[in-house]
């Protein structure tokens, strides 16, 4: 019973403390992101308004018409350059219209009450820490004198450095940006934040120097705001023409102080900006949203990128003519090593391959890679992984993350061990390395060297390997390794068009004898691919023929010679391959430019 009563007491106290008036105010002004964002936006607007009102007061004020306190007789003042004495009256007193004073007083009262309320809500036991904060001191300097002038009218023309509110506006803007990103649940960019801070610091330095020198020079040559702004720009840019100079020592002292502050503050911020820029360059930055919407790209996700894996992927991917205009965005959590950096600096790849350092498990990095706009995502593993089970676990997690972030992006996953395939069955294509390896070894038992044939067919090669070898078999092996699987519509083919109505076996035998190409299969319209259908199958003009050759039919030397003969006889050369590929886009991406077959929807017979 005692324990239950204690639990009830604790629950009641917690409930009561959360519903006190102070807690409700703290929830509205500080804790709640959206309401806090509105409060900071209102505070930022107030500070900008005070700076604007100060500029209006300067433009309406003319010391030549007389200076003095509110209701006092005005005194005329003329600057004497030969005298070393300073008349402080133009510095202490300004001309402030009644309407302008009333607006400034109202704004000051609102700012003062808001500041005191925030001090009360954020109080944690140390009042001196709150009082001696720079923002609080500036707030008191720019608000309390206006409140005092309500009760003491002669001080209504007293100069108040309201232009210092620009620093409070800068502070409010930084907090407002932070609250904005928290409210929309988006991680802000450190680079954007640093650029914003640097720009605001420069703006505040120039505005403070302009207003300060213009006011102090009221006791000198009475510079205008535009002239004072020109002087600050010339001074901070280290040009220093010398046509405009401060005439009295207070303004000269202010210039020295502003230059010292600029020499201390700006280099530190530039250093931070350069550091962030270098870190961003290492991570690769972001893939352009405009490019993602206007150009096509695929994303390659790997846990560690080695040169052999990179070159294999790029050579196979860009082997297909349809994929030449695609961009490849590499998303890898490790920093790019020297060998990969050298490869990506080659002009062939530097304009088409973009390296981003990041993880597919983070939505922020997937947004950087514009995964939701990608044509496909490839999740690959290195073939030299020591712990293959752990590598599959990482692949599975990345596949889940990508599918959750971009469910409409086609997903191609490489799994090392077959027992892990069912974890990624949602992917569009899953390739298991051990399954393929054991299947080819089994085919070797039925037909020797089958694994070698398939390996050479699916691996893109130019057929130039081993040409320097003294052994004839090595030269022949290397030359024939350049054979690939291509497809062509029979009615458009010069190789197979003459065999229309003939059996598949007859066409395969005579095409190989005449042109040296190997016909291995065909596909009827809206039907599956048939591999070696035998002598019972008759070829039709609408069939798609799959054949093995060193190059595509339209690039063959036989075709070029025939076209040259037609030109000599006066016949116009006809396009051999007028029609585009009728395979769907995901089939072409899956083929990686080698085996032009639909790996998902094909039933081989």
What this model shows, in words?
The protein has 605 residues and is an alpha/beta fold. The chain has four domains: 1-29; 30-281, Helix Hairpins (Orthogonal Bundle), CATH 1.10.287.70; 284-432, NAD(P)-binding Rossmann-like Domain (Rossmann fold, 3-Layer(aba) Sandwich), CATH 3.40.50.720; 481-557, Regulator of K+ conductance, C-terminal domain (Alpha-Beta Plaits, 2-Layer Sandwich), CATH 3.30.70.1450. Helices cover 52% and strands 8% of the residues. The protein has helices at 2-18, 21-31, 33-60, 89-92, 98-121, 127-131, 134-151, 165-183, 190-216, 225-236, 249-283, 289-294, 307-317, 338-344, 347-350, 363-368, 388-405, 433-446, 450-458, 472-480, 504-515, 557-569, 585-591, and strands at 297-301, 327-332, 353-357, 376-379, 411-415, 429-432, 484-489, 518-523, 529-531, 544-549. It has a six-stranded parallel β-sheet, with helices on both faces. The protein has a four-stranded antiparallel β-sheet with strand order 7-10-8-9. Helix 7 (134-151) packs across helix 8. It catalyses: K(+)(in) = K(+)(out).
- Roughly what is the average pLDDT, rounded to an integer? 80
Helix/strand-derived class?
alpha/beta
Fraction of residues in helix: 40-55%
CATH architect. name of the largest domain: Orthogonal Bundle
Any idea of the CATH class of the largest domain? Mainly Alpha
For the biggest sheet, the summary is: 6 strands, parallel
Distance between the termini: 78 Å
If you compute it from the alpha carbons, what radius of gyration comes out, rounded to the nearest whole angstrom? 39 Å
Low-pLDDT segments: 1-17, 571-605
Q: Strand share of the residues?
A: 5-15%
Envelope shape:
elongated
């Amino acid at each position: 019973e005692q324990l239950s009563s204690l639990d009830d007491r604790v629950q009641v106290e917690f409930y009561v403390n959360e519903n006190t008036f102070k807690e409700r105010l703290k929830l509205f002004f500080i804790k709640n992101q959206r309401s806090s964002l509105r409060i900071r936006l209102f505070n930022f607007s107030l500070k900008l308004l005070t700076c604007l009102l100060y500029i209006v007061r300067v433009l309406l004020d003319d010391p030549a018409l007389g200076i003095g306190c509110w209701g006092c007789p005005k005194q005329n003042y003329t600057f004497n350059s030969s005298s070393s004495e300073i008349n402080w009256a133009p510095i202490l007193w300004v001309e402030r219209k009644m309407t302008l004073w009333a607006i400034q007083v109202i704004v000051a009262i609102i700012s003062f009450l808001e500041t005191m309320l925030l001090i009360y809500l954020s109080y944690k036991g140390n009042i001196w820490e709150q009082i001696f904060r720079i923002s609080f001191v500036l707030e008191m300097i720019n608000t309390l004198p206006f409140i005092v002038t309500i009760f003491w009218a002669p001080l209504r023309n007293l100069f108040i450095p309201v232009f210092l509110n620009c620093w409070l506006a800068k502070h409010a803007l930084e907090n407002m940006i932070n609250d904005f990103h928290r409210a929309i649940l988006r991680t802000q960019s450190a680079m954007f934040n640093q650029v914003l801070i640097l720009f605001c610091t420069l703006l505040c330095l120039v505005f403070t120097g302009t207003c300060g020198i213009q006011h102090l020079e009221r006791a000198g040559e009475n510079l205008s705001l535009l002239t004072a702004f020109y002087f600050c720009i010339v001074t901070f840019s280290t040009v220093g023409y010398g046509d405009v100079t401060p005439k009295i020592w207070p303004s000269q002292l202010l210039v020295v102080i502003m230059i010292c502050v600029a020499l201390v503050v700006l280099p530190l911020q530039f250093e931070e900006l350069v550091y962030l820029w270098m870190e961003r360059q290492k991570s690769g930055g972001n893939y352009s949203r405009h490019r993602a919407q206007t150009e096509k790209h695929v994303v390659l996700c790997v846990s560690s990128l080695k040169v052999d894996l990179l070159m294999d992927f790029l050579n196979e991917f860009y082997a297909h003519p349809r994929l030449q205009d695609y961009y490849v965005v590499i998303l890898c959590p490790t920093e790019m090593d020297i060998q990969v950096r050298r490869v990506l600096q080659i002009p062939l790849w530097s304009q088409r391959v973009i390296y981003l350092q990041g993880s597919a498990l983070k939505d922020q990095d997937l947004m950087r890679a514009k995964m939701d706009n990608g044509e496909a995502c490839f999740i690959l593993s290195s073939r030299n992984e020591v712990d293959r089970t752990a590598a599959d676990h990482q692949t599975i997690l990345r596949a889940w993350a990508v599918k959750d972030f971009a469910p409409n992006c086609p997903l191609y996953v490489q799994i090392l061990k077959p027992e892990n395939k069912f974890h990624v069955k949602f992917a569009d294509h899953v390739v298991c390395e051990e399954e393929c390896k054991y299947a080819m070894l089994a085919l070797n038992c039925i037909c020797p060297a089958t694994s070698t044939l398939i390996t050479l067919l699916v691996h893109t090669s130019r057929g130039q390997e081993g040409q320097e070898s003294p052994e004839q078999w090595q030269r022949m092996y290397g030359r024939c390794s350049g054979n690939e699987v291509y497809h062509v519509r029979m009615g458009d083919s010069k190789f197979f068009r003459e065999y229309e109505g003939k059996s598949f076996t007859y066409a395969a035998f005579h095409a190989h004898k005449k042109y040296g190409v190997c016909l291995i299969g065909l596909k009827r319209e809206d039907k599956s691919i048939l591999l070696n259908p035998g002598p019972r199958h008759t070829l039709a003009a609408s069939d798609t023929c799959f054949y093995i050759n060193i190059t595509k039919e339209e690039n063959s030397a036989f075709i070029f010679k025939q076209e040259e003969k037609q030109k000599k006889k006066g016949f116009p050369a006809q396009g051999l391959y007028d029609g585009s590929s009728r395979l769907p886009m995901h089939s072409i991406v899956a083929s990686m430019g080698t085996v032009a077959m639909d790996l998902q929807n094909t039933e081989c017979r």
